[in-house]
């Protein structure tokens, strides 16, 4: 419990920094007046931009962290990530199609195509990777192939249709910049339901991590657990991707860090991921806003720059070693 309390303090610090720092420099007193005084010139900046952006980062980070930990357990692949296995690419391809064909340009129109695309690609990647006999290498290869194909499709749509290019050029890099109160209230039910379902599945996932035979011996039904987990991952990733575009490496990095602190027990891994993943995402977003003032670097770019070396580190460290999930 002490560790969770410290993680919660880190999250509180990340939330404060996300509200207090941005592309426009504000003093702490100006930020406070912007929070409390509707007559303050900083009030629109804080309430219409920074608060929604911070809350959206909290929700999306939690969703991606939980989805990454669940995928790594379900696939028994330590390198599984919603981005690396093509889940985000499926959501992005579906959103690109909705924008191109139906002229959709807001979150309300993105959410259902994103959920459908994430679900279809998650199932396709698992089947192509070998289903129940899938190995980590085959799943990674299937995800890489799907990622390449789907993001090539998204790029083609943006090149062929100028309206899609204008609507999606920032979204495809992964960004919290377009966060609005309406987006937060729309995404909250989907991610909230996914968070509750993920935490409920912690104990069954512990059994599944031991292998299908061991799970059956403990009275669990591996096929049902696996299907429910994939459904929850689809819900979390689809909603998160619809809200701010595809963001990679957060779902890969945070579960590894958490397991080094807690061990493999999902009853601890998932709560820690739910707290520490938004710390990483909000920290990356703050960094992107500060280093390029008065502009900003999109959060998806920052997480890629940070996550790439981390991914290589885990890949090299795990080479030739058994993976404990």
From TrEMBL:
Keywords: Cell membrane, Membrane, Transmembrane, Transmembrane helix, Transport. This is Iron chelate uptake ABC transporter family permease subunit. Its main location: membrane. Gene3D superfamilies: ABC transporter involved in vitamin B12 uptake, BtuC. It is found in: Cell membrane. InterPro entries: ABC_BtuC-like (IPR037294), ABC_transptr_permease_BtuC (IPR000522). It comes from Catenulispora yoronensis. Belongs to the binding-protein-dependent transport system permease family. FecCD subfamily. It is a multi-pass membrane protein. PANTHER family: FE(3+) DICITRATE TRANSPORT SYSTEM PERMEASE PROTEIN FECC-RELATED, FERRIC ENTEROBACTIN TRANSPORT SYSTEM PERMEASE PROTEIN. The chain crosses the membrane at residues 49-71, 83-104, 110-128, 140-160, 180-202, 223-249, 269-287, 299-316. The keyword Transmembrane applies.
């Amino acid at each position: 419990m002490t560790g969770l309390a410290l993680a919660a303090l880190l999250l509180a610090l990340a939330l404060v920094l996300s509200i207090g720092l941005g592309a426009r420099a504000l003093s702490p007193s100006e930020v406070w007046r912007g929070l409390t005084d509707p007559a303050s010139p900083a009030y629109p900046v804080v309430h219409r931009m920074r608060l929604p952006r911070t809350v959206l980062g909290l929700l999306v980070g939690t969703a991606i962290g939980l989805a990454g930990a669940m995928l790594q357990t379900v696939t028994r692949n330590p390198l599984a990530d919603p981005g690396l296995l093509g889940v985000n690419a499926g959501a992005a391809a579906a959103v690109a199609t909705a924008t191109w064909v139906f002229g959709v340009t807001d979150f309300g129109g993105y959410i259902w195509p994103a959920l459908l695309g994430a679900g279809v690609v998650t199932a396709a990647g698992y089947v192509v990777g070998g289903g129940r006999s899938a190995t980590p290498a085959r799943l990674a290869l299937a995800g890489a192939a799907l990622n390449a194909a789907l993001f090539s499709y998204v790029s083609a749509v943006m090149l062929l249709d100028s309206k899609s290019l204008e609507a999606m050029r920032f979204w495809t890099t992964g960004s919290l910049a377009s966060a609005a109160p309406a987006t937060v209230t729309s995404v909250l039910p989907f991610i909230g339901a996914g968070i509750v379902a993920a935490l409920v599945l912690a104990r069954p996932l512990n059994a599944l991590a031991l292998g299908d035979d061991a799970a059956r011996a403990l009275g669990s039904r591996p096929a049902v657990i696996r299907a429910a987990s994939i459904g929850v991952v689809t819900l979390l990733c689809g909603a998160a991707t619809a809200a701010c575009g595809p963001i990679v490496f957060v779902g890969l990095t945070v579960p590894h860090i958490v397991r080094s602190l807690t061990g493999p027990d999902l009853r601890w891994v998932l709560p820690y991921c739910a707290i520490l993943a938004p710390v990483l995402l909000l920290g990356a977003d703050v960094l992107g806003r500060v280093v390029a003032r008065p502009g900003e670097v999109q959060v998806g770019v920052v997480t890629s720059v940070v996550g790439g070396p981390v991914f290589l580190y885990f890949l090299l460290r795990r080479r030739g070693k058994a993976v404990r999930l």
